[in-house]
Amino acid sequence: MEASLTRIKSEPDLVAPGWTLYSVRPESVEFWQGDKQRRHTRLVYLSSPDGWAKQMLWP
Predict the structure, then answer these.
(1) Helix and strand tally (H, E) in the chain?
(2) Is residue 1 part of a domain?
(3) Where does the pLDDT of residue 26 fall: very low under 50, low under 70, confident under 90, or very high at 90 and above?
(4) Are the beta carbons of 59 and 43 closer than 8 angstroms?
(5) Distance CA 38, CA 41 (A)
(6) How far apart, in whole angstroms, are the C-alpha atoms of residue 1 and residue 6?
(7) Does 43 map to a domain?
(8) Which of 1, 4, 39, 47 supports an S-S bond with 35, CB 3.0-4.6 Å?
(9) Does residue 1 contact residue 20 with C-beta atoms inside 8 Å?
(10) Quick check: helix, strand or coil at residue 56?
């Protein structure tokens, strides 16, 4: 990332003036897998200081 910032500072026209960077840091991510018999599988991954923890929500 530092190399990118250095390049932008040395080449100011490289990025459009109205361009904005957003950074997203998820706290949880949920995955859902549908089933024809409606026995769907739902998993959630929760962020913690030690890494990601996985939990099954359904069934």
Answers:
(1) 1, 3
(2) no
(3) very high
(4) no
(5) 9
(6) 9
(7) yes
(8) 39
(9) no
(10) strand
pTM (2 d.p.): 0.57
User: In this structure, is residue 3 part of a structural domain?
Assistant: no
Cα gap 41→30, rounded to integer Å: 10
Q: List the one residue out of 55, 36, 35 whose CA is nearest residue 45.
A: 55
**Does the pLDDT value for residue 14 go beyond 70?**
yes
* Nearest-angstrom CA–CA distance, 19 and 56: 39
pLDDT of residue 43: 95
Q: How confident is the model at residue 59 (pLDDT cuts 50, 70, 90)?
A: low
Alpha-carbon gap, residue 8 to 15, rounded angstroms: 7
Q: Return the residue matching tokens 């089933």.
A: 35
